[in-house]
Amino acid sequence: MRPLTDEETKTMFEKLSKYIGDNIKLLVDRPDGSYCFRLHNDRVYYMSEKILKLATHISRDKLVSVGTCFGKFTKTIKFRLHITALDFLAPYAKFKVWVKSGAEQSFLYGNHVLKAGLGRITENTMQYQGVVVYSMTDVPLGFGVAAKSTLECRQVDPMSIVVFHQADVGEFIRNEDTLT
Which superkingdom, per the lineage (predicted)? Predict the structure, then answer.
């Protein structure tokens, strides 16, 4: 387990800023202690510094994971967010989308959100902006990228895609063997 390089940190923070903007500072400087990001086996983990000190006593080859997995770096050094980061993205999300109860199941099976299933969307959401997807009862379901801006969403037909699916809580069941 090692600290992220400057390039890795920049890449990861650029991806996070698409979803939570300047609220990244709130992830690191928390009132309940100091938190940090560490890289282990191409995966980025978020943990308190207390846990980090305890984890240093375990050898790298025996350590499976520590803290919360935020995502992983691909072989081309691109960062992919994992669904396990949703608990930290949801409270700080700048742009949100609420889906109707009939469209929840479709989203949780890995499908994009259609205009017909769109309940609400945050004002001034721009096209290709990272959004957190909620149920109408404010339960975070996953995250994606806005396919249309807020203004465009009002005028498109009901079968148009308004949010591209990236990750959802149904992945815990569908991909439980590969999530670590």
Answer: Eukaryota
Q: Supply the Cα-derived Rg of the chain in whole angstroms.
A: 17
**Hey, what are 64's tokens?**
């499976």
Task: Say how far apart CA 11 and CA 61 lie, in whole Å.
Answer: 26
Considering the entire predicted model, what is its pTM?
Answer: 0.88
Written as six digits, the tokens of 4 are: 């992220």
What span, in angstroms and rounded, lies between the C-alpha atoms of 156 and 143? Answer: 21
Phi, psi of 107 (to 5 degrees): -65, -40
Q: Residue 32 burial (CB < 10 Å; 0-12/13-18/19+)? A: exposed
DSSP letters along 83-144, please? GGGHHHHGGG-SSEEEE-HHHHHHHHTTPPEEGGGEEEE-TTPPTT-EEEEEETTS-EEEEE
At which residue do the structure tokens 């801006």 appear? 149
| Cβ neighbourhood burial of 168 (10 Å; 0-12, 13-18, 19+) | buried
Which DSSP category does 30 fall into? E
